[in-house]
Write a structure and sequence with these properties.
It is built from 10 helices and 18 strands. It is an alpha/beta fold and about 450 residues long. A 7-stranded mixed beta sheet has the order 6-7-2-8-9-10-11. It has a 4-stranded mixed beta sheet with strand order 1-15-12-18, with no helix packed on it. Helix 7 packs across helix 8. The N terminus is likely disordered.
Length: about 450
């Protein structure tokens, strides 16, 4: 899974918000002054919904209630952003174990720990923290180890939910073959539920065939996360989830309810489809609706998505953007506006396809030191911008970079970690390059 390092000094991560194996530490109590929660938004009803000025919620199959909006932790969101989100009243934070995809799970744990010191409440009881485990760690024993790792990094004693994102490795995202299959991982997750280490489990990037198999398991999935945005609405699958949830409502139970989460709800996924610009953030229709209500496009999309029964996880490092996302329910989209956004499904603009820069290089750095390393892009002011980590020897970080870009590699830790190596990208070696990064500290 690649991260894009742009030319001209504007660092951005390629938005791979694939949730692989999802661990959830959940909210249950205090509010820290956050916006009020309302009754559930359990179903996906594209024609009948009740707008509200408060944040919608969903009650999981284990009777735990979660908000329908959280802070996404991808694209290099760090401790300060997690801290500000908690202070603003976020009840849900999304993270992952994979440093190479721009996540910093341990910094979520740090923010939670520091918040405990600032507030009298036990913050574990009301902040829902969602982490993901790389698909190369699929397998019975690997999943058990992954759970232990997240418990340690997040500084908690139990995880409220674990989701498997992808049933297998694909492309070049795995640096080694996983120990086992998603079904082996599922068995480990079921046992973790039995032991009280995990309260609910689920999976991401699910189709109907996979869901058929999952529904036959001893413990059925409680959360499913798929790609969802105005141009990619996954309607048929969502309606299947809706029918399952409505059957539970009729029976007066929640035991088999499934929460549908959307990733890349603000359109970042389209850049993986070679779009030059994000079609969601540049949509004329969405811009017109936003101007009509004097709000931003993200606020429009967030309200629309959650009113359609989809939980959203927009990433943001900016406290003002974090707050405006929480305020996505302070206005009301009309039914006509809702239906006009529904009509965008399957109709992304054709003219925005991105032409590959002739200086662009797909580069893969493999850790050949004796421990974890952090990777930094050197900007035009000689500043070091963290773009990812390679936690284990033999693992690989994949980037999209450009000719002439410079990187430094340091022992994992703070930005002041000791220097291990340097690398300058040279397009002469090809448009796809693999480099083994060794410890050259004695030569530097």
């Amino acid at each position: 899974m690649a991260i894009m390092v742009p030319p001209l000094g504007l660092l951005q991560f390629k938005p791979y918000s694939y949730a692989l194996l999802l661990l959830i530490v959940m909210s249950r109590g205090s509010s820290l002054g956050s916006p009020p929660l309302r009754a559930e938004a359990n179903d996906v009803d594209d024609t009948n919904d009740t707008p509200t000025s408060t944040i919608p919620t969903f009650t999981l199959a284990n009777n735990m209630t979660v908000p329908m909006i959280g802070l996404g932790g991808c694209s290099g969101v760090r401790y300060k952003a997690f801290k500000s989100a908690i202070d603003l009243g976020y009840k849900f934070i999304d993270t992952a174990q994979s440093h190479s995809w721009g996540y910093h799970e341990e910094e979520v744990g740090q923010a939670l720990y520091e918040a405990k010191r600032r507030y009298q409440d036990n913050i574990d009881d009301f902040v829902f923290t969602q982490t993901k485990i790389h698909p190369q760690d699929l397998g019975y024993y690997s999943t058990k180890k992954a759970i232990e790792l997240s418990l340690e990094r997040l500084q908690v004693t139990s995880l409220d939910s674990v989701l498997i994102h992808k049933p297998r490795c694909w492309g070049d995202i795995c640096s080694h073959e996983p120990e086992g299959t998603w079904e082996d991982s599922w068995k480990a997750l079921e046992e973790a539920v039995d032991m009280g280490l995990v309260r609910s489990i689920g999976i991401c990037d699910v189709d109907n065939q996979l869901l058929d198999k999952l529904l036959q398991k001893r413990i059925a999935p409680m959360v499913i996360q798929n790609w969802f945005d105005p141009f990619h609405q996954d309607k048929a699958f969502r309606r299947r989830i809706e029918s399952i949830n409505k059957a539970q409502d009729r029976s007066g139970t929640v035991e088999k309810k499934i929460l549908y989460q959307g990733y890349s709800t603000l359109g970042n996924q389209w850049k993986l489809q070679d779009y030059r610009d994000n079609p969601v953030m540049t949509s004329r229709l969405l811009l017109a609706i936003a101007k009509e209500h004097d709000v931003s496009i993200p606020e429009v999309v967030i309200q629309w998505a959650t009113r359609r029964g989809v939980m959203v996880l927009p990433a943001s490092k900016n406290p003002s953007h974090q707050l405006s996302n929480l305020k996505s329910y302070a206005f009301t989209l009309t039914e006509e506006e809702m239906k006009s956004i529904d009509a965008l499904d399957g109709k992304p603009p054709k003219k925005l396809r991105r032409e590959k820069d002739t200086n662009e290089v797909d580069i893969h750095f493999t850790n050949h030191s004796d421990g974890p390393m952090d990777v930094f892009w050197v900007d035009s002011n000689e500043g070091h911008v963290h773009v990812g980590s390679i936690p284990k020897p033999g693992e690989t970080l994949s980037l999209t970079s450009y000719h002439g870009h410079s990187f430094v590699f340091k022992k994992s830790g703070s930005d002041g970690g000791s220097l291990l190596n340097r690398h300058i990208v040279d397009k002469a070696y090809g448009s796809t390059q693999n480099h083994q990064i060794e410890d050259k500290s004695e030569e530097l």
